[in-house]
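Chain A, query sequence.
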Amino acid sequence: MSTLVVYDSQFGNTALIAETIGSQLKSMPRVLAITNVSPADLQPVEFLIIGSPTQGGRPTARMLKFLQTLPKNAFEYKRVVAFDTRISAIDQKIWLRTFMNSIGYAAPKIAKIVKDKGATLIAQPEGFFVEAKEGPLKKDELKRAATWAKTIQ
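Chain A, predicted structure.
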């Protein structure tokens, strides 16, 4: 099965998660930053893993632009999962936690976009936690990403 892991990363945290996921998949996928992906790269792919940092409750502008400019049927006949990196709302003061929960995270928004463009979502969107906006990843998040990768293949 042709598999591709596509991600955007600003401070390297989402890249680390993407590489970890890719290393655990039996299909030995290509792992590419969104800046190195063209719509043509998606055509032969059967299984696609898409990840982005959460910025203002949504994916990065680069990821959004890429996904939104693809044709309506771009993900037809493709199995897709989405992930993001995020700050844990539980660790925040009540007012910030409420705000974060109201605006949401990147992965569910990625999942909605690709589903609307024909994707078959094979798992719920997943979030991996960072300590602060620039990271680092919280303890054991790479281990959690490796475990998650094994459940989605």
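The first helix runs from residue 13 to 24. The chain has a mean pLDDT of 96.
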